[in-house]
DNA sequence: GGGAGAA
DNA sequence: TTCTCCCAACGCATC
DNA sequence: GATGCG
């Protein structure tokens, strides 16, 4: 035990929260309250605190909010490991701390705490810790322990937090490097006040009686003194004077709900010459030509852009809605492997957000964290999750249909592989080889799993034929792919789509509309599979040609050339044998990752581009819809022959 | 990224 | 089980 | 033959 006999009024009388199945035991919870024996898990996700703006009611215990890195120590006899909150092993970075943990002879367990660097005044500093980690000189690092979800062979996760802390304090021999994060007593409001006056970052509150859970929980809260948050660095400006090295200001942002990098403001102070130079060196190596932020920063002309991978900590006085950060000051870098840039979302005092990201089944996605669209930070896992979730809408359009996939093994900026056959790739389902002898099996999608497996193979786009396996030579649809040439406004695209619709109506054909996910629109006419490809294609060519002749200022029927400048190519070539078009709900490999979204004709007025919906936004939109935008599509396969008659008459 | 083949 | 090596992934229209 | 496009 520590020398001081702390007069810690144990909260024995604290009202326990009523647990569902704990009613009938009758016995007073003793020191050795029920805690199952348990082997020590290999990994542990820490409980995270929710940011709140004022102390809530209820029975809380408060601790100082230390300004450092959340760390976990896994102690299993001589096997001592130090892990970040994401489970990265940082043991080798903290040899002195490892030694301290070894020397402490702690029981087998998982220990949860915050690692900080104390400056001369005993105040923890984040910048200092950053420097210490990078230089390996971490003599002054202190590990404040505050919890022990596993201890001495027991699983304490269901044990109330105050009891876990009591047991932790019991086994912990405090040293200079290893300390117990004391409870601070007093009224919450006063505690926060005095913490702020002392220059601390804030206080942490924990609800008495609460268990240890592996997620952000509202049983743990943080109250902050200053506005302080992590941002992604997306660029920087040069210093005013002629200092060759260093940084004028950092341009920082955050990832919004749509996973788009939004600009937040510039950070002009807080780094000294040395830090600034080192930062500059690091950023230079990450430079890229394109602005990573979705919108303009106001400093675009003097900015050097960088890949949005570095995360920094910033304090600021104010962040007005729709405006940029005021008095922003740099506090240090976050290590990128500890918190990927894609996860840096604005954290505002609020109720804990519910994380409802359905993982794509139990199929394995390797390198799920890999960014496939640098403009948004969208990852491979995002893509796989998108396809897992969109499957219920997409699969009907894929059923029985030959598909092509477009793969991007290194993301949308890298090599593009247009793949027409499974070619022995186990992740791609092939059509029955017996079905069509002499032909290589085609790619088919029959389930959500097929879609997710394809995503694992970096298949971003899924294109399909106009016919299905049961009548592979007879198209069951005809498509008019409207491709805007350079300089075509969206208003003219709308106009063009309406004109095509009207022309088809005059031919007696009902049509359905979708965004392409890229720049254009797709107009689809479902057909009875009764005519062969060349017939259907020549019909579509005649329609395109007619449009080009009737409204030459808007339409062209020939691809290529610069005759497309300012006009819309009516791409009828999609209607040939073995040709393909991006299928409904397919993602597209373009910056922003649009998806091809079926819409009603009425919606056309509201849609702003072919990429109006994206991998990030489509699922929420689809869930919010009550009716199928393509209601009636499957119930209206149409005869083409009468339309061909009418078209001949028209010409 | 993953198959085949080797260790 | 884990490692290394090696290797594939279109057809059509247009210029 | 190269290039652009799904
Ligand atoms: Mn198109
Ligand atoms: Mn096209």
From TrEMBL:
Cofactor names: Mn(2+)
Domain ATP-dependent DNA ligase family profile residue range list: 134-259
NCBIfam families for the chain: ligD_pol (TIGR02778), NHEJ_ligase_lig (TIGR02779), NHEJ_ligase_prk (TIGR02776)
Source organism per UniProt: Caenimonas sedimenti
Gene3D superfamilies per the UniProt record, alphabetical: 3.30.1490.70, DNA ligase/mRNA capping enzyme, DNA primase, PRIM domain, Nucleic acid-binding proteins
Pfam family, one: LigD_Prim-Pol
Reaction(s) catalysed (UniProt annotation): ATP + (deoxyribonucleotide)n-3'-hydroxyl + 5'-phospho-(deoxyribonucleotide)m = (deoxyribonucleotide)n+m + AMP + diphosphate
GO MF, any single term: metal ion binding
GO BP annotation list: DNA recombination; DNA repair
Location of region: Disordered: 1-40, 328-357
Protein name as catalogued: DNA ligase (ATP)
Record-linked InterPro entries: DNA_ligase_ATP-dep_C, DNA_ligase_ATP-dep_cent, LigD_ligase_dom, LigD_pol_dom, NA-bd_OB-fold, NHEJ_ligase_prk, NHEJ_LigD
EC number of the protein: 6.5.1.1
UniProt xrefs under PANTHER family: BIFUNCTIONAL NON-HOMOLOGOUS END JOINING PROTEIN LIGD
Protein biosynthesis is among the record's keywords: no
Compositionally biased intervals (Basic and acidic residues): 332-350
Keywords: ATP-binding, DNA damage, DNA recombination, DNA repair, DNA-binding, DNA-directed DNA polymerase, Exonuclease, Hydrolase, Ligase, Manganese, Metal-binding, Multifunctional enzyme, Nuclease, Nucleotide-binding, Nucleotidyltransferase, Transferase
